[in-house]
């Protein structure tokens, strides 16, 4: 039994690159995945590929810059699997704001750990 077997894992930025590779690897080791990204067509293709190899996977189109969408991702994961064990926070995020206004992205993590 691998460490990731039966773990419920959210992967943001899962539609390509490191996120996609991570999803494929974790699925192969038995993790239950919730994939998140903005590009639904790529998410659907990845889900089909993982399911074809016997993996357990779901997806939710999510823009991590949108707090409501992040909350919906957490809610969908809890509804689908009943828990969240791991967050692979891979999505790129480059919000623009004046330096003196700062940036508080901690809500992303707090939304997932409620």
Automatic annotation (TrEMBL):
Entries under Pfam families matching the protein: adh_short (PF00106)
InterPro entries xref list: NAD(P)-bd_dom_sf, SDR_fam
Keyword terms: Oxidoreductase
Entry GO terms, CC: membrane
Tagged with keyword Oxidoreductase: yes
GO molecular function, one term: oxidoreductase activity
Family: Belongs to the short-chain dehydrogenases/reductases (SDR) family.
Annotated protein name in UniProt: Short-chain dehydrogenase/reductase SDR
Organism: uncultured Microcoleus sp
């Amino acid at each position: 039994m691998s460490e990731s077997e039966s773990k419920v894992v959210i992967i943001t930025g899962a539609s390509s690159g490191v996120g996609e590779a991570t999803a494929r690897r974790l699925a192969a080791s038995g993790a239950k995945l919730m994939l998140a990204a903005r590009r639904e067509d790529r998410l659907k293709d990845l889900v089909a590929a993982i399911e074809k190899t016997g993996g357990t996977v779901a997806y939710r189109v999510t823009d991590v810059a949108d707090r409501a969408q992040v909350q919906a991702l957490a809610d969908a994961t809890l509804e689908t699997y009943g828990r969240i064990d791991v967050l692979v926070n891979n999505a790129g995020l480059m919000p623009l704001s004046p330096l003196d206004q700062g940036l508080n992205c901690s809500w992303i993590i707090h939304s997932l750990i409620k």
